[in-house]
Amino acid sequence: MHGVHPCGTVPRTMTTQEVISPVNIEARKELGIRSGDTVRVTQKIKEKGKVRLQVFEGLVLMVKHGTEAGATFTVRKVASGVGVEKTFPLYSPMIDKIEIVKRTKVRRAKLYYIREKATKEIRRAMRKAFAMGTSTGSDIGEKEQVVKDAIEAKAAEAKAIEGAEKKAVEETKVVEEANTPTEETKTEEKVVEGETKEEAK
Asked: What gap in Å lies between CA 192 and CA 155, rounded to an integer?
């Protein structure tokens, strides 16, 4: 009998199932992300019941599983001198948008050597920074120091003048107090004047 399996069972007919996805699968397939591309991935992040968008831009180190259902791509960027890598599923609904910023021709499918190259460059930069640590003071710093010293000298001079003026005022007060007659001297003067008047009579 035609269509019957040798063991006696009837084979099931293959039916095509429609894949329902919130992601535009065809558009992401046509994008054709490959190693060496600089991509900008806009990611959805849920926080306290709200969804915010976060942009991650960097170099594609590798693409795994091509355009299959489980396809992933790894993006690397350097943030504040630290290398950060993220692996994104190509068809993830948590990715809002993928943009290819720049495309470069590379001869490898997996750019793992970029990590070592980056660390070597950082080490070289650190060595240079260490060598440059023995440098002379900047002209601006020296000028600022000169201005600071001049201001301090002026302040000290003004303080000295103020102290001298205070001292002079105190001395004049002492002289004035010495010259002003007290009540006893006034009464003595009056008695002397009375005696001279009596003698004159």
From this structure: 56
From the CB of residue 95, how many other CB atoms can be counted at a distance below 10 Å? 17
pTM listed for this prediction: 0.51
Report the C-alpha gap between 54 and 44 in whole angstroms: 6
Q: Are 96 and 53 in contact (CB under 8 A)?
A: yes
SS3 69: coil
Distance in angstroms (rounded) separating the CA atoms of residues 57 and 28: 17
For the record, the structure tokens of 94 come out as 């948590």
Ranges of each domain in the chain: 25-131, 152-200
The CA-atom distances, in angstroms, between 199 and each of 22, 193, 195 are: 133, 10, 6
How many other C-beta atoms can be found within 10 angstroms of the C-beta atom of residue 75? Answer: 23
Task: Provide the CATH number for the domain formed by 25-131 in this structure.
Answer: 2.30.30.790
Going residue by residue through the chain, which has 201 residues, state the pLDDT in tens, using 9 for 90 and above: 455 555 666 555 545 555 566 778 888 888 888 888 889 999 999 888 898 999 999 989 999 998 888 899 999 988 887 888 999 998 888 888 888 888 888 888 888 888 888 778 777 777 766 554 445 555 666 777 777 888 888 888 878 778 777 777 777 666 666 666 556 555 666 665 666 666 655
Report CA-CA distances (Å) from 25 to 31, 70, 71.
10, 12, 11
Q: By three-state DSSP, how is residue 182 classified?
A: coil
